[in-house]
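Predict structure. Input: phytol kinase, 269 residues.
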Amino acid sequence: MPTPVEEAAEFWAVAVDALKRMEQMHPRPSEEVFEQNRQFLREHEEKLRRFEEQGFDVETAKRNALEKQKADYLEMVAMAQAMSRKHPNQREFEIGGSETQQLYDQLLKAPEGKSGRADKFTCVYCNKTSPTKLKMCARCKVVSYCSRDCQTAHWKAHKKACVPVEKEPKSLPLTWDQVEAHRCAPVMGKTLEVRAILDEGAMRQVMPCKDRNGVVRRVAAYNNSRSIPGLRVGSLLRWKNPRFHYFMDGSSGARIEEADLKNIQIINN
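Output follows.
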């Protein structure tokens, strides 16, 4: 369940995205429709302002909400493309039901880490990401915390699942946020795992890819062939020693060069 701050930020992000897309429509919606969306935006901006005055981290909530909104939109585009490939003569599609669920599971579902592994770089309570390993729960050795305060606050929810173990489990694959935390430096000895959900390439292969948290960033091929062998919609991409990249168009993710290919594994079901 989202917190009240997260819920307000999600509604705010929906309004921001709706207004942006309405500006691009031809013909444009009526001024009345625009004003309804502007009012919706103003209402949730005011809610977020009040939360900020109370000391809540509104900026992080807004940033996460915009990321989720972007990922949801890309998923809808990817689903429409998948349905078009499956039914090339059909112009309208119903989202929902067994067929679209099957396509989602095959092509768009976030990669799942192996069970029993631990996320050692993200606080389970506040979701703060660290470039270095966080302190783990000494009892179960599965969840990690950025501070003692977060561990104390999370104990009520965690204690039922906290089972003592002797051996520390292996780490889960990295997420986009965990790679970004290294500020474009390679994350040596660690692996990023993402699923390609959409093909946007023209001159080179460019694919939005989703991590296990549902965050979507772009993977672009800057190697000699301008493509990554075997990579297609639905593929899992595993990249050892990954590094984050900020593209000139404002997007971000991974720039794959020729020397990186030896560290990349593509898995197709």
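The chain has a mean pLDDT of 92.
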